[in-house]
Structures are given as structure tokens and as C-alpha cells.
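User: Hi! I'm working on a homework problem where we have to compare a predicted structure to a textbook description. Could you give me the structure for the chain below?
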Amino acid sequence: EQWDIFGATQMNFHEVGTDLVYLDLDPYKRDELANRYIRPILEEWSGEKLKLNAFYGIREYFPGAWLRNHVDRIDTHIISATLSVLKPNATSTWPLETVDWSGKRLRYEHKAGEMLLYESSTRPHGRPYKLKDGMHVGCFVHFSPQDESKFRRQLNDGRRMLSGNFTTVPYHSTPSDAPANPRRVDVIVTPENMASKTKDRRARAHSDPPKRKKRTTDGQIGVDFVNDLDIDLVLYWVSFEGAPMKNAFLDPGNSVRIQTYESHKFFFAPASEKEPKAKDYKHSVMKRGLSSVKASSFLGDPVHDGL
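Assistant: Happy to help. Predicted C-alpha cells:
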């Protein structure tokens, strides 16, 4: 997992790296699971109709890892759940800590197969102590109210308080002296020792995770796809070969944000249509300046907001 982000200090990734099994590899199934099974539980708990904003993981924490108490994004991570998927070889607990409204610290056991619900943008939470052994494998899902007017004032107040209560200072690294006689070590990478290293990462803590290529966002645009109809829909991306690829399931009133590229094509189809053909539906072509696409576009001319 790549955490080479300036200012990202909520995890000690520079000491003990984490691995990520990407749910993004199947975004349709990812969103379908969140909307079908998790969202109804959080709507009952919160008393609000919710929209899905993020479902990510599955993250693997190794011995020595800790997670500093923090709050999440105030615009999208309002009502959240953290899922404990597995705890292989763990003999000690690694509870979730939160801080209540009176400032009291509370710790909740988080056994494998359990899900904890929390208000992630207002309740400080984390695991501010080291995982002793085994692994903690978890994922995270975040929602916000569909009716944004209910929290828009709090959002604006939160942004105003944030802007007036922090100071940006230059970064200063810890001074260090170079060794007098540095020793060079040549490492020959082979499929065998790479496989061994991967296996070893899951067996013990690793303080020197392999370097990964930095992701590029050149040409990327973020677009909200909105189901403004009264039927369940599926959002499809049209591949370069012209084949429809499922991207997200959307029930009435829901939306999903997709990071995509200019000239990419998308269309909506009824969820009841099991194998829609791309040629049977109007496409929305991505371009710079496009911010949202309404589902009603697939019945007529595309409707673009923010042009």
C-alpha cells in the first residue's frame, strides 16, 4: 500500500508497512455489497437515508502497526463502519479506541467477523497502541446523508474552524550522520526470492516495504453519476473494445463518484437488464469540466451538470 503522502501521519507506515487487497478491482461488486448489506444497517442506526461515498480495503496490518486517533473527512465520511474480516494468528486483542463527547476514551473489542459503527468525522478514533502479534485484516465503508441540507451548515462550520485552528510549518527531518565507511550491497531480484519476501511479509513485521511506482493522476477527472430515476440502475463503462463493463449498482436517489479519464464512455441501464448492449444506450463521454451525469440521460440526450 502506498502511503508516501506529505502529512499523512495517522499510521506508522514508515516503520511497519501495510498491504492492501484492492476492492477497487471489482467496483460493481464492491458497491453492490455496501449498498445491499451495509447501508440498510447504518440507515436504521442513524435514522437517515444515506449515500455511499467510499468502501476501501481490505487492509492487512502486521505486528508493530498502530493507528493514531484521528477524525475522517467532514464532507463524505459522516456515518461509517469498520469491518474486522480476519485476525489470523492473533493471540491478543487490538480494540478500536474512540473519544466520546465528554473527552473520555473508550475501547471496543473488534473480533473477526464483527462490524463497528461510528460517526467518523466527529468522533476521534484509532488504535493508538501496537498490534502485538498475528494480523488484523479490515476494511472501511463511509456514507453521508442523501439530504445534504441536514449537515451543510455543520460542514461549513467545521471547515471554518479547521481553517482557523491549524498552522502550516516547514518540514524538518531528524538530523543524522552518514556512516564513515558505507557498505554497498547488491541485491539480485529473482522470482524465487520475491515470492519468499511476499510470504515473509505476512508472517512478521516489515520495516522496509518495497518501493512502488507512484500513481499518476494526469488527465483524470472525478465525475458524480446520479440515479435520478425511480428504478434500480447499473452504471457501465464502455471498454476500448466496445464491451460494457459493470462499474456500480445505484438504487433510486443514490450516486457514486468515479475517477476516470477524458474520452471514456459510460451509460446507465436498468438493473433488470442482465446483459445490456452498449449500442442500445446513449453514452456520456467524459471531458474536462464535467462534474456530474444524471441517469435520466440514458433515456434521452445526456444531461451534464457543471459544464
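For your comparison, note the following. The chain has two domains: 19-163, 220-305. Residues 205-217, 300-307 have pLDDT under 50 and may be disordered. Good luck with the assignment!
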